[in-house]
Design the sequence.
């Protein structure tokens, strides 16, 4: 466990560096795994020398998708808690509500984004790619599996129009017709929904779902109970389905049949960062109620990236200016939890994670089916960041090694 | 517009959905007819029972059978407890007050569920969900059949019970006027307790079936009663048969709208729109049971 | 005949608005000074977070005021006030983007439009008995939520719905020119809330108030006394909807962007609970309700305590109010405190006595 910080086994006792975040927690949506795992990583750092002797003090607030409340928390973090960086957040609408405030303060946020503004604004970067681009990837996966028509269904939450634009442009570039659906969650009539999607896709088509795990599971189970899983060529799902919970609940009938676009690596990979992730989870992650999974993996990544930035600060000043400059300057961070090096950089939009895996259930576990595949640049959002990456190759060339590799393990 | 062939399977899914609404709807009407209490915590009680039996199976190593039985008994126990504690002191109040009081119970249960089972994805599958048969290209599983059969059995049984048995007659009298019934020598408390217990057992069973058909989630199951309430409203909170039929119609309309893409997104309005229209039509009739003291 | 059919405070004193006795004058003076302090000094002392929390408290106090008038004055119960608030926020947001009307005019307009919409709901529902009316509001709330989820809220887009989706930030709903900052907007909200309470007070003390009391006590008697029951029930519905409409306008401006997730069905139930707990016979109950609904969760969140505990407390509160304390916290709390005071005084007084005896 010595790999989180610079001085193994030495507790950091200096003046703390204060960081904060905002995460969604409300009935039906619990995104606190991300912040709790970021906290776990910081605890590990603090037990191993901290940042130049300074422990990281982490404070997060739980919001209930209420814009006024979220804006209040943002002010509280800055004004009362005096945080110098906003990292590790995980919220449905936080980016949309706060991005202007962060811009006005020069805060460069690292968050596991959901809202469109997490990707399309200068002051936010995420370890994940969010629902739109993950749905793009799921559409690509289903088409690779031979689907000639797509029925794309997503949960009716804020931002559906923005999300729908991605798969539409990707399907168009692949010459595959696509039909869009929205369904209110919680779904009460999963049987009808499954039937509707299968009818729309047809025997040569594929169904792509963008829902939280329990809702996606309802549709898939309804399809299974009605014997619909073989009535289409393939089933696709955006990242949330990439948990063993779904694989276990579905049973083996879906093995190789359900293709999940996985923004992050499977949690049992042999990669050293994933090994460290599991070790930190076991020792410090008692509050991560969702267990090992993409959500806590994202929190781990955010903790690592932030620590990396803090360690790069020369001199002993950790204020909003130095910390956020360091965060913004992050680039070329190589980690096995992501397909390609992660970066922040000065850009009008950020989708550093734009190439990922396709997983499928296999005996109650998610396993990798296809290795790293780039999300199609037919989606204008992806095309934009590919342009940014081309202009500055330094962003994506693996230059920054994370601690475990540096320590030679 | 989809073709008839496309619509056909939705009739089956619609009836299954209607059966789901019917189960809760009928359960609520039974209690209302016997005690004058519209139990808005019906869904919350069932949800808690289902979550408890999930807990017992997954964390306490219980076998499925006893755990499912526990869910049903929990529903009976908690509802009976509420009825014994809060029934008598509120008995002379307006039906509205009695209904609002059950929202108190719903909030307490919802708070406890959100505290203990903090919104993680869960699922619990009854053995009957994995088996079934095909009707016009649609697979019907036995849980759906049980839900529907259960609803029909409850309708038949309670109708007969209220009409032909002594306790049933007492219950009906009770709902009309508690004081007079008591002076006539009917053991009011015992009869009411029986109604609370029966309706509670029903809520536990409904919770178990609904968690399978709709999903094991506290908020979903708690607020599912709103859709079922639509059916009970159409049945004017009195007629068990009308409630049952209304629930099936709601389920059917909802399902048949699903493949019509232009309005598919609005199909969740079905129960609310049908109930509102029905109420307005009914309230237009002078001297209907709606305008007076509905009890 | 409803929630209000238990003990009610004496209303005989409330006759005509202009006739203020000395007690009223003193009270008005105290309230005026209190308001002045709340508007001028308190916002300056609060940190950014608590400023937004208290803005929400003031806004939800107005919503609670509306429901309180419905329940406490006429015995009508609505289980759909939060959906109506969402509808009002939609209307206000639409007006803010579509027009350049001054802020107060938009507030007034959104209040009036919501009043019309709310009354449309109320009109046919008034013929139904209390329980049915409550349930029909629940049905309509469900329908409104489904529609708003499909249409989304205006954010500067084109067309009737005015909704657009971008990834680089939508337009914010504007705030009044004189109250752009959070602290200034809190002051503005408190003043608007005070005006709304004044509007409510005028109604309660004038002819409608007396008609409501008569209806609540006995509809047949009121009818016999020549009170137009339908008119005054309608009036209460319209007033409650107007208040909710104004609150929706304030909420839209406070939030900047609106999402349907801000208005869950469960909040309508919670609102009912806090309004009951606050007390439906006094307008102050609405202030308590606003604090219970918006301040307490923020406080618990601040302490790191799960807000779910509050749900349990609210549930117990509903049962307690309906069983033993129909007047709510506004009456109950001072009484309990006085009881506690006497108890403590009794204990203190007794202890020396016992010592003497021992």
Sequence:
């Amino acid at each position: 466990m010595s790999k989180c910080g610079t001085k193994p086994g030495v507790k950091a006792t200096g003046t703390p560096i204060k960081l904060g975040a905002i995460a969604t927690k409300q009935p039906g949506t619990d995104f606190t795994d991300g912040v709790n795992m970021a906290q776990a990583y910081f605890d590990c750092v603090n037990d191993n020398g901290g940042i130049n002797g300074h422990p990281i003090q982490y404070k997060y607030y739980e919001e209930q998708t209420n814009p006024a409340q979220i804006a209040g928390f943002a002010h509280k973090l800055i004004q009362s808690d005096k945080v110098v960086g906003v990292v590790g957040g995980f919220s449905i609408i936080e980016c949309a509500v706060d991005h202007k405030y962060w811009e006005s303060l020069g805060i460069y946020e690292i968050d596991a984004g959901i809202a469109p503004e997490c990707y399309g604004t200068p002051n936010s970067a995420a370890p994940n790619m969010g629902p739109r681009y993950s749905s793009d990837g799921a559409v690509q996966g289903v088409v690779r599996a031979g689907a000639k028509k797509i029925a794309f269904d997503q949960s009716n939450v804020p931002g559906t129009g923005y999300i729908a634009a991605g798969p539409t442009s990707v399907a168009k570039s692949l010459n595959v017709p696509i039909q869009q659906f929205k369904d209110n969650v919680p779904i009460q009539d999963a049987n009808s929904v499954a039937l509707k999607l299968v009818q729309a896709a047809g025997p040569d088509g594929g169904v792509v779902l963008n829902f939280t795990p329990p809702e996606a599971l309802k549709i898939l189970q309804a399809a299974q109970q009605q014997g619909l899983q073989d009535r289409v060529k393939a089933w696709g799902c955006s990242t949330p389905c990439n948990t063993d919970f779904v694989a276990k609940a579905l049973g083996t009938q879906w093995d190789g049949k359900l293709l999940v676009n996985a923004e992050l690596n499977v949690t049992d990979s042999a990669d050293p960062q994933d090994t460290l992730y599991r070790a930190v989870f076991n020792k410090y992650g008692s509050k991560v109620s969702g267990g090992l999974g993409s959500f806590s993996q994202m929190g781990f990544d955010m903790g690592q990236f932030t620590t990396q930035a803090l360690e790069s600060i020369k001199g002993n000043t950790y204020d909003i200016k130095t910390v956020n400059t360091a965060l913004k300057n992050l680039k070329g961070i190589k980690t096995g939890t992501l397909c390609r090096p992660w970066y922040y950089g000065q850009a009008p939009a950020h989708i550093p994670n734009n190439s990922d895996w396709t997983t499928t259930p296999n005996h109650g576990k998610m396993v990798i089916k296809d290795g790293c595949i780039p999300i199609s640049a037919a989606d204008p959002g992806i095309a934009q960041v590919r342009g940014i990456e081309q202009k500055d190759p330094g962003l994506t060339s693996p230059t920054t090694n994370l601690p475990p590799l540096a320590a030679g393990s | 517009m989809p073709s008839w062939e496309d619509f056909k399977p939705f009739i089956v899914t619609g009836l299954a959905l209607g059966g789901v609404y019917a189960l809760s709807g009928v359960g609520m009407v039974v209690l209302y007819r016997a005690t004058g209490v519209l139990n808005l915590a019906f869904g919350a009680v069932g949800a808690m029972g289902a979550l408890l039996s999930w807990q017992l199976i997954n964390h306490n190593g219980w076998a499925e059978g006893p755990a499912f039985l526990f869910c049903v008994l929990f529903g009976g126990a908690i509802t009976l407890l509420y009825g014994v504690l809060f029934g008598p002191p509120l008995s002379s109040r307006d039906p509205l007050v009695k209904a609002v009081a059950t929202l108190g119970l719903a909030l307490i249960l919802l708070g406890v569920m959100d505290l203990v089972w903090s919104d993680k994805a869960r699922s619990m599958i009854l053995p009957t969900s994995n088996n079934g048969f095909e009707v016009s290209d649609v697979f019907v599983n036995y849980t759906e059949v049980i839900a529907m059969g259960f609803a029909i059995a409850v309708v038949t049984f309670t109708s007969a019970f209220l009409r032909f048995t002594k306790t049933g007659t007492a219950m009906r009298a009770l709902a009309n006027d508690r004081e007079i019934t008591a002076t006539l020598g009917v053991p009011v408390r015992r009869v009411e307790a029986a109604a609370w217990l029966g309706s509670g057992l029903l809520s536990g069973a409904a919770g178990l079936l609904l968690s399978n058909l709709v999903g094991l989630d506290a908020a979903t199951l708690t607020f599912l009663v709103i859709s079922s309430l639509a059916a009970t409203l159409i049945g004017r909170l009195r007629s068990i048969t009308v409630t049952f039929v209304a629930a099936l119609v709601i389920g059917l309309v909802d399902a048949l709208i699903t493949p019509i893409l232009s309005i598919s997104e609005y199909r969740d309005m079905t129960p609310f729109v049908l109930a509102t229209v029905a109420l307005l039509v009914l309230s237009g009739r002078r001297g209907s049971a709606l305008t007076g003291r509905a009890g | 005949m409803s929630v209000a059919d238990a003990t009610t405070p004496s209303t005989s004193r409330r006759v005509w608005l202009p006739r203020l006795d000395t007690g009223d004058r003193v009270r008005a003076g105290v309230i005026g000074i209190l308001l002045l302090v709340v508007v001028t000094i308190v916002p300056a002392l609060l940190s950014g977070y608590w400023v937004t929390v208290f803005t929400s408290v003031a806004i939800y106090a107005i919503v609670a005021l509306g429901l309180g008038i419905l329940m406490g004055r006429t015995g009508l119960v609505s289980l759909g006030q939060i959906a109506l608030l969402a509808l009002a926020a939609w209307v206000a947001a639409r007006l803010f983007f579509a027009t350049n009307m001054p802020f107060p005019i938009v507030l007034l307009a959104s209040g009036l439009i919501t009043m019309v919409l709310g009354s449309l709901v109320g009109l046919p529902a008034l013929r139904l008995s209390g329980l049915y009316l409550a349930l029909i509001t629940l049905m309509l709330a469900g329908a409104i939520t489904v529609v708003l989820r499909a249409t989304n809220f205006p954010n500067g887009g084109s067309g009737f719905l005015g909704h657009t989706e971008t990834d680089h930030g939508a337009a914010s709903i504007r705030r009044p020119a004189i109250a752009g900052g959070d602290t200034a907007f809190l002051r503005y909200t408190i003043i608007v809330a005070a005006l709304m309470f004044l509007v409510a007070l005028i109604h309660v003390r004038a002819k409608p108030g007396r008609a409501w009391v008569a209806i609540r006590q006995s509809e047949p008697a009121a009818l016999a006394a020549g009170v137009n029951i339908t008119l005054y029930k309608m009036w209460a519905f319209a007033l409650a909807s107007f208040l909710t409409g104004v609150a929706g306008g304030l909420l839209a401006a406070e939030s900047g962007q609106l999402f349907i997730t801000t208005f869950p069905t469960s909040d309508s139930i919670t609102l009912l609970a806090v309004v009951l707990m606050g007390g439906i016979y006094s307008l102050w109950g609405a202030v308590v309700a606003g604090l219970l609904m918006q301040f307490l969760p923020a406080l618990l969140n601040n302490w790191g305590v799960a807000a779910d505990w509050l749900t349990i407390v609210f549930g117990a509160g509903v049962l307690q109010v309906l069983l033993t304390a129909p007047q709510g916290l506004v009456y109950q709390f001072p009484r309990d405190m006085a009881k506690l005071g006497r108890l403590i005084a009794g204990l203190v007084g007794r202890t020396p006595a016992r010592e003497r005896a021992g």
